[in-house]
Amino acid sequence: MRMDGPTSDELAEPLETIDLYDPTRYETGAQHLAWHRLRREAPVWSQETPDGHRFWSVTRYRDVAAVLMDDKSFSSAHGTILAVAGGDSAGGRTINLMDQPRHADVRLPTMRLMSTHAARQRAPQVREHVRRLVGERFDAGGVIDIAALMLHLPMAAVGETIGLPPDVWTALPGWAMAGVAPEDPHFAEGSAADTLKKAHHRLIAMFSELIKERRAKPTDDVISVLLGLDFGGRPMDQREILLNCYSFVMGSVTTTAQVASHLVQALADRPAAWQALRESPGLVPTAVEESLRWASPTNHLLRRVIKPVQVAGTRLEPGELVAAWVASADRDEAVFARPYEFDPARTSNPHLAFGVGAHRCIGGPPAQVVLGLLLEELIARVESLEVAGPVSHLRSNFINGITALPVALTPVHSRRPVVIS
Amino acid sequence: MTDTPVTVVPRGEKDLSSDYRAPGSALEQRLIEMWRQHLKVEPIGVDDDFFELGGHSLLAADLLVATEREVGVHVPASTLFLSPTIAELAEAIVGLLGDGTGA
Questions:
Q1: Which single residue of A109, A128, B35, B64 has CA 20 to 30 Å from A300?
Q2: Shortest alpha-carbon distance between residue A203 and chain B (Å)
Q3: How far apart are CA A289 and CA A293, in angstroms?
Q4: pLDDT given at position B103
Q5: Three-state SS sequence of A137-191
Q6: How would you classify the pairing of strands A300-305 and A142-145?
Q7: ipTM of the shown complex
Q8: A301 by DSSP, 3-state: which?
Q9: Which of A197, A209, A239 sits opposite B76 (nearest CB)?
Q10: A131 with A138: CB under 8 angstroms?
Q11: Which residues of chain B have a CB within 8 Å of the CB of A249?
Q12: 50-69 in B: which are within 8 Å (CB) of A?
């Protein structure tokens, strides 16, 4: 989605024109205008999906955080994205679609593989992968499609951790994107239904093979951990393992790449911010956090009410659906000073890009590490960058994606030598 | 699961792009019986597409495991996902058995 915010109240979207479902609005519009208005005037907002499922939307930081923190009142088992508001076919069976206590059975053993400590230990290896991906491209300069390139960044971060061999790293990101945004023409192969089917076939076929290999020879990766874990007193069955492999891949591929693209675009659009970073590479960690807040790659997280609860003064009953708009929370002026400004030096930055509470993204640490490494490579190799053509956005109300981002890079080494006379 | 009786849907109720063709070998017959158990459709022809018969990717993964158990060879997932008919699957299995790389 376009990232512009309101420059004045007159430009914020009028309530009657707001539609938070329509995926094309995220492709062509600036939904931040709509969220801005909702935060001020309608902190609990009701709408229906095209197939008739009513959902409430919360947009203020405190309400989004409250919904995500309260997993006793709000369940993830029904589904967590609006596209399947009627119920997710994997509901109750994958890490992201489970409530306690089963959720902890999967989360705790897999989290160990992606802890801050584990991510830092793996950093040298990840740096090599990142250099292989971007080094020559950045050094060569010229116009490159950052969106296409960044699709491969998540594999550098967690490919090995999940258990995906490098020979699938090239094709897999496209399948994952088709799986999360089958309506987007960029990833479509036929109708949305056909696209989704093909993406699922390829991913499930690949996981089937990998599961077979890991059963024969377990190693220290997510697939092996899934095969060995105690799932409420029994092992996971084949389908549960396949579905969780799918969740881990989707959770990493479809998100981190988009933060990277938004980060590069934010810097290309803001020469002052880029210069500040180049002069003070010590800002990389705060810049990474700002890119996470700025991009908030997951626009919303859906929950279903399982016991009566008050949300922003409105009483909700069991069975009702609530979309917690993380992307809106991360622009809430009650929490973030100058929320529509990209500030690589921002210090107080409690963004919700990874969610919060029991389902907070377990891939957060490797994502932070790989984004930092990418930024370091960019600073080391590139002198200046600017957007050099039309930018297109993903047709999805769930993932805040960029599908094309042509950027002209001037590499550091192309500077003409200074002749001292 | 494969030993329990199943209620089957007549083939005519499925929207298929293939005409019915009967199995020509014992292997094809065994595979048809497995597909019938998983897909709950009858009769299944050797040119029928697994996914047109109502199969989905998770069911295909189940069937892959069952097929390997039944025929004793490692069947690459791509065989079933990309060549999803009994005739193609049987041909691939015969090839795998012939290689001596299975079992």
A1: A109
A2: 9
A3: 6
A4: 41
A5: HHHHCEEEEHHHHHCCHHHHHHHHHHCCCHHHCCCHHHHHHHHHCCCCCCCCCCC
A6: unpaired
A7: 0.73
A8: strand
A9: A209
A10: no
A11: none
A12: 51, 56-58, 60-62, 64-65
Rounded to 10 degrees, what is the CA torsion of B11, B15, B20, B21?
-110
Q: Which amino acid is at A204?
A: I
Q: How far is CA A388 from the centre of its chain?
A: 25
The amino acid sitting at A131 is R
Full-prediction pTM beyond 0.95? no
Residue at token pair 């210090």: A347
CA proximity to A96, closest of A214, A251, A327, A281 = A251
pLDDT digits (tens, 9 = 90+) for A26-58: 999 889 999 999 999 999 999 999 999 999 999
Q: Which two tokens stand for residue B29?
A: 């017959």
- Calculate the CA dihedral of residues A77, A80, A85, A91 and round it to 10 degrees: -30
Residue B82's pLDDT band, with cuts at 50, 70 and 90, is: confident
Place of tokens 């622009």: A331
The residue among A259, A278, A281 whose CA lies nearest residue A270 is: A278
CA distances from A360 to A59, A342, A401 (A): 18, 24, 20
What distance separates the 2 farthest-apart alpha carbons in chain A? 79
Listed in order, strand segments (DSSP E) in chain B are 9-10, 41-42
What is the per-residue pLDDT for B2?
46
Question: What integer pLDDT is reported at residue B102 of this predicted model?
Answer: 42
Q: Which amino acid is at A302?
A: L
For residue B52, the chain A residues in CB contact (below 8 A) are none
> Tell me, what DSSP letter sits at residue A210?
H
Q: Residue A106 and residue A164: Cα distance in Å, rounded?
A: 19
**Between A204, A209, A212, which is nearest B60 by CB?**
A204
CB-based contact (8 Å) between B17 and chain A? no
Nearest CA in chain B to A196: B57
Kindly give the parts of chain A with pLDDT less than 50.
none
* Contacting residues for A159 by C-beta, under 8 A, at least 6 apart: A129, A165, A166, A169
Residue B42 to chain A, least CA–CA distance (Å): 24
Q: How many CB atoms lie within 10 A of CB A28?
A: 11
Mark yes or no for CB contact A204/B65 under 8 Å: no
